[in-house]
Amino acid sequence: MTYEILKPETLQDAFGLLDTDDPMVRPFSGGTALMLMMKSGIFSPSRLVVLRDIPGLNGIRLEEDGSLWIGALTTLAELEKSDLVAQHAPVVTHALRHLSNRRVRNVARIGGALAHGDPHMDLPPLLSALNAEVIVEGSNQGRRISVQDLVTGYYETSLESNELIVAVRIPSQQSWQSAYRKFTARSADDWPALGVAVSLNASRNEIQDLRLVVGAATERPTRLEQSEGILRQEGRSGLERATEAAMASVEFMDDAHGSSQWKKALLRVELRRAVQEILDRNT
Ligand SMILES: Cc1cc2nc3c(=O)[nH]c(=O)nc-3n(C[C@H](O)[C@H](O)[C@H](O)COP(=O)(O)OP(=O)(O)OC[C@H]3O[C@@H](n4cnc5c(N)ncnc54)[C@H](O)[C@@H]3O)c2cc1C
């Protein structure tokens, strides 16, 4: 396998190198996902465009409106250790502690974690529940895509080949509380068989607004809109009905992590636990 590794020093140069119809040309952030695919023979690149020398893609800052701006090249370990993230989006800090192992977290970047499109990921459903968006730049113009709309299918995203995620924005979580429950078939830091992310704007039993997202058991992070409607109307007393609606509406997939029937049963337990966990904090 021969391929070129190019290291542009500006975004414009990177766009030029990526602007091709060849699907074997890819941006390279931490390389943890790409290297796995290359080693297993699933992906044979013709060109890897390494993003690490491009300035302005690192760091985490709190914006004036209370949102968190996270540069696309921020490693998952930096995210895990960030005081700003712990203070303003603590559910992310907790989830990262069980996202793979320290060696992977030291190398993998948030941009790569969101652009990969593998359904078995923790951050896409979680950041979708937090209503986060990715800030995307391309050779022509930039745009913002909600994390919920970023992954469109099994390893498919709405990114064009010459577009890059340059940052992630998590809106202010003031008055919102969140929980993420990850269920693995093996060790606690394994890839999830099911991930359930819940964000609630609630006081006692009353739920003003909410976002429920299931990942890993489905081809792409899936919003549980019917269940959201039930909980919005009925509060805690609607939990059983909301869980039933989720199980009926989601298309689960069979894979090496477990059968669709098993994942359906897991969703029943984990969705209820995640919602209850937050409501119990408020009583
Ligand atoms: C052993 C192991 C265990 C793992 N366990 C888990 C787990 O439990 N939970 C979990 O969520 N994940 C897990 N992962 C996956 C891991 O989170 C991803 O491999 C990692 O987040 C990808 O980030 P990266 O920077 O290495 O991406 P890369 O490998 O560099 O890229 C991944 C994809 O994104 C594209 N890309 C990269 N950066 C950008 C950008 N800025 N803009 C547009 N496209 C871009 C690349 O072209 C490629 O298609 C595991 C990985 C390994 C190797």
Explain how this protein is built.
Helix 11 (239-249) packs antiparallel against helix 12 (260-281). The strands form four sheets. Strands 4-5-10-6-7 form a five-stranded antiparallel sheet. Strands 11-12-13-14 form a four-stranded antiparallel sheet, with helices on both faces. The protein has a three-stranded parallel sheet with strand order 1-3-2, covered by helices on one side. The protein folds into three domains: 4-50, 2-Layer Sandwich (Uridine Diphospho-n-acetylenolpyruvylglucosamine Reductase, domain 2); 60-170, Uridine Diphospho-n-acetylenolpyruvylglucosamine Reductase, domain 3, CATH 3.30.465.10; 177-281, CO dehydrogenase flavoprotein, C-terminal domain (Enolase-like, domain 1, 2-Layer Sandwich). With 283 residues, the chain is an alpha+beta fold. 36% of the residues lie in helices and 25% in strands. The longest helix is centred in the last third of the chain and has 22 residues, at 260-281. It has helices spanning 11-18, 32-39, 76-81, 83-88, 90-96, 102-107, 110-115, 123-129, 147-150, 225-234, 239-249, 260-281, and strands at 4-6, 25-28, 47-50, 60-62, 68-71, 133-138, 143-146, 151-153, 156-157, 163-170, 177-183, 194-203, 206-215, 222-223. Flavin-adenine dinucleotide binds next to strand 2, helix 2, helix 7 and strand 10. Flavin-adenine dinucleotide (FAD) binds next to strand 2, helix 2, helix 7 and strand 10.
